[in-house]
Write a structure and sequence with these properties.
286 residues; mainly beta; five-stranded antiparallel β-sheet; 41% strand
């Protein structure tokens, strides 16, 4: 879990830290998640306190909200409402559901996607709300589908990837350890995103984590070294209709994965010796 929320300029230059860590008013113990509203203000989720702290563009905490449920993460919508991914151990409001839509004061308006009775608590993996233009995409568990929410927080549909004979059987989908033990299946690793006519993200391919780009026009999937426009590791986040973010760190990047032409010696040291992360910005030219 991240301890701080850091802001970088578009050119990669460090700008500031959002708020401050601590246990006093307007401070957070740990930044478990964050989201940016339509005015550029930053909401920080403090897991230990179960609070949302709102920092304005002057880095002043102007509001704190106590959550009425246990969550993993959230996103603030353009209309000021919230979508929350609720924890499977949640005992508060909306118990038994994966997603809740609330108003700006955290009053629950809608509940979505019930947890199954035998849901595996180990499956807190790769799940968050991925913004894509005017949509929000949510994925959780062992699945070949991700849910699409509108910018108003309504459930609109889903993204489906057909893994054919390699897809995980229904009887194993609530049991992560059984899936890991078999190492025979393919499924989404985390919430994908859409940019132009491409779906991007990562899949688990048996025992490997593989980045993919799916061309919806040609109905063709490209994986890692098959990319015609260079290596992309772990595409993580949509920026706009021609730009996205990818992450390089040791967790997502085994030492033998990248060729010398991709990472410099300084970058390798930053990742493998210093335990750092490199954030890359990609631009689609067509």
């Amino acid at each position: 879990k991240a301890k701080n929320v850091l802001v970088f300029k578009d050119n990669g230059e460090f700008e500031r830290q959002v708020g401050a860590r601590g246990q006093g008013p307007g401070e957070y113990i740990q930044a478990n998640d964050f989201s940016i509203d339509s005015q550029g203000n930053v909401y920080v989720y403090d897991g230990p306190k179960k609070q949302l702290l709102l920092y304005n563009t002057e880095n002043i905490c102007i509001k704190s909200l106590q959550l009425p449920f246990d969550i993993h993460n959230f996103t603030v919508l353009p209309n000021g409402k919230f979508l929350f991914w609720l924890a499977q151990y949640n005992k508060g409001k909306s118990k038994g559901y994966q997603v809740a839509l609330t108003d700006s004061l955290l009053n629950v308006e809608k509940e979505y996607i019930p947890y199954t009775q035998y849901f595996d608590a180990n499956m807190v993996m790769g799940s968050y709300f991925q913004q894509t233009d005017n949509k929000f995409i949510y994925y959780h568990g062992i699945s070949d589908s991700a849910y699409i929410f509108t910018q108003d927080g309504d459930l609109e549909g889903n993204i489906y990837i057909d893994f054919g004979d390699n897809k995980a059987p229904e009887k194993f989908r609530d049991n992560l350890m059984e899936i890991i033990k078999n190492q025979e299946y393919q499924y989404l690793s985390y919430s994908p995103f859409i940019i132009k006519n491409y779906i991007m993200g990562c899949i688990i391919d048996k025992k490997d984590v593989i980045s993919f780009v799916y061309d919806t026009k040609n109905k063709t999937m490209y994986k890692n070294s098959e990319f015609k426009f260079g290596e992309i590791n772990s595409p993580k986040s949509y920026v706009n209709d021609s730009t996205f973010i990818s992450v390089f760190n040791e967790a997502y990047l085994p030492p033998d994965f990248m060729s010398d032409s991709i990472l410099t010696d300084e970058q390798k040291k930053h990742i493998y010796e210093d335990g750092g992360t490199i954030i890359c910005k990609y631009t689609l030219l067509q």
